[in-house]
Specification:
The complex is a heterodimer of chains A (115) and B (111). With 115 residues, chain A is mainly beta. Chain A is built from no helices and 12 strands. Chain B is built from no helices and 11 strands. The chains are: A mainly beta (115), B mainly beta (111). The interface between A and B is medium-sized, with 22 and 25 residues.
């Protein structure tokens, strides 16, 4: 079974802090994704990566950056946290590119509160 | 970006009854996927149906896809309390292979 592990379930940070959200998958998946989930808005893609050191912007990349130094790890960075970044953050991975009908495997999420 | 839309937004039924959720979308798709999310947790993939398929089954789940109407339905038969969750559809566009998510249907199974 694929396991996607997000380092924190709950996180409280102050405005202006630099925040790191870590995600690790154990199935040698090529593709990794970061989403944020807000009530009534569904999931919105922040960044994704199809390979080590490769990253692509999603729909809402502003205020975020990512790092993929190793295949199994994909980090989301909030450069200077703001209150409108309070949200549930979900990491996901897929074995192949989505065009090959490869489903996503999600971590349990990190609920981030910025005060 | 465009979103799929689930209908209804919320559904409450008695244990043992069938639950039907619908998903409509706007663009041409490669596949449509359904996911379940228990409260405060990540999403779990349930079933994927390709654009050239019309119906698919997995255990108590039945998914149909009507590409002419740009809609899909998820049927859960003989519901159980453990089916209480939010259900999301996601469509993979066939133009740029982006996954577009709906806002979800919240399903409550009453014992």
């Amino acid at each position: 079974d694929v396991k996607v592990t997000q380092s924190s379930r709950y996180l409280v940070k102050r405005t202006g802090e630099k925040v790191f959200l870590e995600c690790v998958q154990d199935m040698d998946h090529e593709n990794m994704f970061w989403y944020r989930q807000d009530p009534g808005l569904g999931l919105r893609l922040i960044y994704f990566s199809y390979d080590v050191k490769m990253k692509e912007k999603g729909d809402i990349p502003e205020g975020y950056s990512v790092s993929r130094e190793k295949k199994e790890r994909f980090s989301l960075i909030l450069e200077s946290a703001s209150t409108n970044q309070t949200s549930m953050y979900l990491c996901a991975s897929s074995a192949r590119q989505l065009s090959y009908n490869s489903p996503l495997h999600f971590g349990n999420g990190t609920r981030l509160t910025v005060t | 970006s465009q979103q799929g839309e689930e209908d209804p937004q919320a559904l409450s039924i008695q244990e043992g009854e069938n639950a039907t959720m619908n998903c409509s979308y706007k663009t041409s798709i490669n596949n449509l996927q359904w996911y379940r999310q228990n409260s405060g947790r990540g999403l779990v993939h349930l079933i994927l149906i390709r654009s050239n398929e019309r119906e698919k089954h997995s255990g108590r789940l039945r998914v149909t896809l009507d590409t002419s109407k740009k809609s899909s339905s998820l049927l859960i038969t003989a519901s159980r309390a453990a089916d209480t969750a939010s259900y999301f559809c996601a469509t993979l566009t066939d133009s740029n292979y982006q996954l577009i998510w709906g806002a979800g249907t919240k399903l409550i199974i009453k014992p």
